[in-house]
Write a structure and sequence with these properties.
single chain; 162 residues
Length: 162
């Protein structure tokens, strides 16, 4: 297996191991992730109108996603705790597809990337939407959670849209 394709979280014996980033330089890094929660049109209408009994679904999901990004290292065993410079979370109602589309962006000046923080933000925002609206729609589907782009680091930039 080439050095480029080696799994970084396994040691020579194949045991899970946290990557040593101590010698890496501090650089600016960013990542953007996205996902969606598909639902019945009536559920989307209730969310849009603010008529879900638990409260303002989009505001609470936004805060939950931001909080989750800050705690990614507590949830993902081999993820490094990082100081985050900026976390942005956008939620858009897509009427045509009857879904809430979620986008998270994370920036940091550090020794390792912030992809996991962006993916965690999207995941928890999606779970929060499900939790808040499940009383009216248990058929909601969380889908399409993915890394959209990353900038910085030794492996360079990545964009799923290229």
């Amino acid at each position: 297996m080439s050095a480029e394709k080696k799994l970084t979280h396994l040691d020579e014996q194949g045991t899970a191991d946290m990557v040593d980033v101590g010698a890496k330089p501090v650089t600016e890094r960013s990542a953007r992730a996205a996902g969606a929660v598909a639902m019945k049109p009536e559920t989307l209408r209730l969310i849009r109108q603010g008529d879900i009994k638990k409260g303002d679904v989009l505001s609470i999901a936004r805060i939950a996603g931001i909080m989750a990004a800050k705690r990614a290292a507590e949830l993902i065993p081999l993820c490094h705790p990082l100081p985050l410079d900026k976390i942005g979370l956008d939620l858009a109602l897509n009427q045509a597809d009857s879904r809430v589309e979620i986008s998270a962006s994370v920036k940091s000046s550090g020794k390792t990337g912030v992809e996991m923080e962006a993916l965690t933000a999207v995941s928890v925002a999606a779970l929060t939407i499900y939790d808040m609206a499940k009383a009216v729609d248990r058929e909601m589907r969380i889908s399409d959670i993915r890394l959209v782009e990353k900038r910085g680091g030794v492996r360079g930039d990545y964009s799923a849209e290229e």
